[in-house]
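Protein: DMT family transporter
Species: Sphingomonas ginkgonis
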Amino acid sequence: MPAIVIMLLAFLGGGLLATQAPTNAILARAGGSPVLAALVSFAVGGAALLAVWLVTGDRGGLANLRGVPWYAWLGGFYGALFVGVAAYAAPRIGLASLITIGIAGQVIMALLLDHLGALGLPRVPVSAMRVVGALLVLGGVVLVRRG
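Structure follows.
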């Protein structure tokens, strides 16, 4: 797949991710719990992924999952934590603040993981330009919060 298509898909995914917090906030308000909202969100997402998995015939190597390190199973936990936090935080601090703060956290963690070459990633050392980029993102958080 060409890089431009991958970048457009990432852009679309990011845009749709921004809609997840307010829709889950609606569920949280109606159900009285951000945890319930996150559970419903993951159940619907899980059902959608199961349907796509069954329809596409992309079975992968399920037996190979037994050999992955314990921390490889935590991705869903991280996602569930963020979805629950987002359902709670979006109506309290605003969607733009939630998203920019979340992105700042992602960029800082990404710099650390890249620098260490952690979790099977290629090692990409922290550079002055990468730090400036992260500082610009943090500046964006301040501007969005004060705006």
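Remarks: The two ends are 39 Å apart (CA to CA).
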